[in-house]
Design a protein that fits this description.
The chain is an alpha/beta fold. 25% of the residues lie in helices and 26% in strands. It starts with 6 loop residues before the first helix and ends with a strand.
Length: 609
């Protein structure tokens, strides 16, 4: 079965043809009034439209901007100095507006609200102080609130209600797909989402900007957004192209600086390329700071790697090439506070930085009752939906999931692959078999009647179902590659990307003395020997984040001359179907997680020495 290209591929092709991805023509940015004006009377917001991935030659001003901003240079505005600018910041919230526990809900976002409102009130009548609130990306995906996002709730709506000034586009914000993200931003009254290094496809072009400008009592704050190209889950998002972030910032510096007293990079690149908490690509914030001119921007406020930086004050280790770097952990555990002091129009200094544990902040009760409580009520109804029974089987418990996935055939993996295969066939896809790895499983299933919340705990991420194609010869190579990733006796278990297959694939793994000598034997597909099907093309369903956490092991394996097969070189189609929702649908149709639905072992995989 040939795989058709997605609309996103056509979008990207159109972007090339229309010159969005490179041109010799003069390139200007246009400064426009921000479509979203938050409930705050002491600031004005602007966005820059245009292509920051090419050198920019100047800035044009939209006609609808008032005469005060026809020549909006920073030096033309009177500023009461010294001026204290307080920038509150968070990152990697992943939609966690409240911390859900078995004993109740602990407010998170309402505590951020209380601190921000407190600062706004504190500075309201002070002409020499003001406050901003920024998010450094990954505002969505990874908590139960994802369940409501497509229909009735998403973080950008709360951000507009509070008055968050801008957010960087995070990699996980793209997990739901380009079209869905476009609808989400549009529904939030065009909340300003920033990514200067993304070659923005036409679908997102009206809603994602390279940078923004916020005027606080005459103090101009320029904000450049950056997005990592790493850890893109959906096949659709992996088609996106990203420019070198250093080149992009250097493109923007000469044209933005005259308009800004303060210039901030709002980065979702990650802290340091040596970090292991998340995959990174190209640059981290430290590498970005090293590559820019000394002190080129006043601060980098970052995210992606969930680092807790400057908890007790600005650390000298986080000042690189004259540029302070900030990051505030993840999941709303901390709120960052950065103070920048303007001694005069030309002298800008970071004078204080710290993190505050949100659990130490008071709750804004009115915001909690008006905005959060209705969301929690809808979520509670969803999470308590019954899904059926759970078979009594040790492979469904957390110990098997965490310890044995790459050691033997596992019943929970067999249930997952059976469900994936059934669901895509139900949608009309002609698929031969299914495969999964450990990246989609975070825990086990309870030995009691199953609820929606249990399945969300098992699969908390928004993976989509993708189709791959392999010839019989490639499948043989792929199975051997997979066999080399199996756990070996007396070797610590790390994530190597071992894959388990649906019942259509049956084979043996003979581990041998080392991974180079591993062999496979007695391989059959749909009841026939693979040797008789080497020229056939097979279509496989899997999920979007397959094997990505195994990249560190794959790099080391290649250095040891071990052949590694890369799935991203294969023809791929993203179905747009969400793995978790499809498996919930399958589970309900089966009456639960039962042997009859695939929750069993049947010797399709046999591993020996």
């Amino acid at each position: 079965m040939a795989l058709n290209e997605k609309n996103s591929q056509r979008d990207l092709q159109a972007a090339h043809e229309q010159g969005f991805l490179g041109s010799d023509h003069p390139n200007t940015l246009t400064i426009a009034s921000c479509p979203f004006q938050a409930p705050c009377t002491q600031r004005q917001r602007f966005v820059f439209r245009g292509d920051a991935t090419r050198p920019t030659t100047g800035i044009e001003v939209e006609n609808n901007i008032s005469s005060r901003y026809q020549i909006p240079t920073a030096t033309s505005l009177p500023v009461h100095t010294p001026f204290r600018l307080k920038i509150l910041h968070f990152n990697d919230l992943h939609g966690r507006i409240s911390h859900l526990t078995s004993t109740g809900n602990t407010p998170v976002f309402s505590r951020i609200v209380s601190r921000y409102k407190n600062q706004q009130q504190k500075y309201r009548n002070n002409p020499q102080a003001g406050a901003l609130l920024l998010s450094a990306g990954d505002d969505m995906v990874g908590t139960p609130f994802d369940i409501l996002m497509a229909e009735q709730h998403h973080p950008y709506e709360l951000y507009q209600d509070l008055g968050v000034d801008a957010a960087a586009l995070g990699n996980h914000d793209l997990d739901l797909g380009i079209q869905t993200l476009s609808h989400i931003i549009e529904r939030s009254k065009k909340f300003p989402v920033l990514s200067a290094n993304l070659h923005v496809p036409p679908t997102l072009k009206p809603w994602v900007y390279p940078s923004a400008l916020v005027d606080v009592k005459g103090v101009r704050v320029g904000i450049i957004g950056l997005t990592t190209a790493a850890q893109m889950k959906s096949a659709e998002a992996r088609l996106l192209k990203f420019a070198d972030p250093v080149e992009v910032v250097n493109n923007l510096l000469p044209v933005l600086r005259p308009y800004c007293h303060v210039l901030i990079v709002l980065s979702h690149l990650g802290y340091d390329l040596h970090a292991t908490s998340a995959a990174m690509e190209g640059y981290g914030d430290r590498q970005l700071a090293e590559a820019l001119p000394y002190g080129a921007v006043d601060a980098i406020i970052g995210g992606h790697t969930h680092h807790i930086l400057n908890e007790s004050g600005l650390s000298p280790n986080n000042i690189v090439n004259g540029i302070p770097i900030m990051q505030a952990g993840s999941m709303g555990r901390f709120l960052g506070e950065l103070t920048i002091t303007l001694q005069d129009q030309q002298t800008v200094t970071v004078t204080n930085a710290k993190l505050t544990a949100t659990s130490d902040l008071p709750i804004d009760q009115s915001f909690e009752e008006e905005h959060i409580a209705p969301i929690l009520g809808s979520l509670e109804q969803k999470l308590t939906q019954p899904l059926g029974k759970v078979e009594t089987h040790p492979d469904l418990a957390i110990d098997a999931v965490l310890n044995d996935f790459a050691s033997r055939e596992l019943a929970i993996a067999n249930f997952v692959t059976a469900g994936m295969l059934a669901q895509v066939k139900k949608q009309g896809y002609d698929v031969d078999f299914a495969m999964t790895d450990a990246t989609v499983l975070s825990t086990g299933l309870p030995a009691r009647p199953l609820m929606y919340s249990d399945w969300f705990a098992l699969m908390p991420y928004s993976d989509t179902l993708s189709l791959f194609q392999l010839t019989g010869k490639q499948l043989q190579q792929f199975l051997l590659d997979n066999a080399r990733r199996a756990n070996r006796r007396r070797e610590p278990h790390i994530e190597r990307g071992f894959i388990q297959f649906s019942e259509q694939i049956r084979y043996k793994i003979i581990r041998g003395g080392d991974r180079h000598s591993t062999q496979i034997a007695e391989v059959s597909v749909n009841g026939c020997s693979l040797q008789e099907q080497l020229d056939q093309t097979f279509t496989i369903v899997s999920h979007s984040f397959l094997r990505q956490p195994a990249s560190h092991w794959e790099t080391a394996a290649q250095e040891q001359k071990l052949a590694v097969m890369k799935l991203d070189t294969l023809p791929t189609k993203d179905t747009g179907l969400f793995l978790r929702e499809e498996l919930i649908d399958y589970t309900k149709s089966q009456g639960g997680v039962l042997r009859s639905g695939g929750a069993k072992t049947d010797e399709r995989l046999h591993i020996s020495d």
